[in-house]
Amino acid sequence: MVSFEMDDRKKIGLGLTGFGVFFSFLGIVFFFDKGLLAMGNILFVSGVSLTIGLKSTMQFFMKRSNFKGTISFGIGFLILIIGWPILGMIIEAYGFIVLFSGFWPTLSVFIQKVPVLGWLFQQPFVRSLFDRYRGRRVPV
Hints:
mainly alpha; 8 helices; 75% helix; globular
């Protein structure tokens, strides 16, 4: 069993990531409020940086296979800041999916063990969505 030590920096990073997701959700609920969406993006990226470390974050975003997702995420954020939040979020969502597509199988296995959501993610249609990414590994 692999042990995962949770120091204070990682706790703060996970908290910032959670607040980033929360503020992004609020920004979408409040009709694409660009202030909440921008704050959510900044908190999310800074939380990821604190959680996995600055060097690992830079390696992840600057990896050749992740350039398309990184550029899409950055351009979407700039478009959001300029004042077109819906278009910015669409481009950011594309970048997010491209960047984190290697994590979907891990997320699927985790969600299948959650009591209520597990039943939903064990249905054939949902499983077929995640089978597409089976075999891809995320380098650590």
